[in-house]
Every structure is written in structure tokens, then in C-alpha cells.
What we know:
Elements: E1 2-9, E2 12-19, H1 24-31, E3 50-53, E4 56-59, E5 72-74, H2 87-94, H3 104-119, H4 138-144, H5 155-167
Parallel strand pairs: 1-5
Antiparallel strand pairs: 1-2, 3-4, 3-5
Amino acid sequence: MDADITLRIDGRTQRLTVDTRTSLLDALRERLGNTSPKKGCDHGQCGACTVLLDGERALSCLALAVAHDGAEITTADGLAADGELHPVQQAFVDLDAFQCGYCTPGQICSAVGLLDEVRRGWPSHVTEDLTGAPTLSDAEVSERMSGNLCRCGAYANITPAVQQAGAR
Length: 168
């Protein structure tokens, strides 16, 4: 069965008809040509497909497109504004936090979501003081980014990049 949906992707409204079983990832990549989110495992285990869905980080391979009719979706491509890289994107460049780049868009979207969660004071599993604001310690960033895997092993630079972006 098909359904007509509208998605706002990286600031642009897109209308399309999708099979009701279509994942948000497949709608983005196959139907709309947005190749920023990557298809890694297609089971929600690697994080390569991470996008910001109505401001929250989400695994687009696990989300049905029809369930998000009218949603605001931001991919790594949509983070830069007025020709300037987003602070997370700039930190990834500054600190060489990528190698092959396959997981980078998902890592960047996850990092943007992580920084927003920290700004809101949301604790993680490793947050030591639940009454205070979380800090961007190595353990905190690593825990919050643990759903994003990197095949190349750029992890050593990803944590400092997230910390640098969070300090801005």
C-alpha cells in the first residue's frame, strides 16, 4: 500500500509517495537522492544512517517514512549555514576525525544531537553527578557516541572533535 507524505529535509519541503514499508533511510537515499545518511547495517546497530529527526538524533534505517509525515529532518548536509560549516563539522575537519568518511555524516549528526542533550542537562549511563550538568569528559562522549561505529578506527579523534565543538 502506498501513502503520500511530506518531509522537510535540510530546509526543503519534499512531497512523495512511498510504500508504507519504506524506511526513512530508503526514502532519503533512493527516492530523494540524499546520500548523506549511509546504509551500513540496516539494523540500527552501526549509526551510519543517523539523522536529526525533529531535532533529536534518530536511526533512519529503523524509522518508517510514513510514521514521520510532516517531520523536519536534518542530515549532515543540512547543518552548514550560509557557507559556513557547523561547529561539529569544523571540529571534525580541524582534528581529522574521519578517515574513509563513510560513517562521518552519521557521526556528525549524532554529535550534534549529543551536544544538544548535554546542553539540556540529560544524563547518560556514565554521568557521575545526576544533580549537576553533564560534562564532555572522554567517558561521557564515548558513551553517548557508542551507537556510532567507525570501520577505520578514527575514534581517537572523534571524541576530541566533539569536545572541541561543545566548547564553542
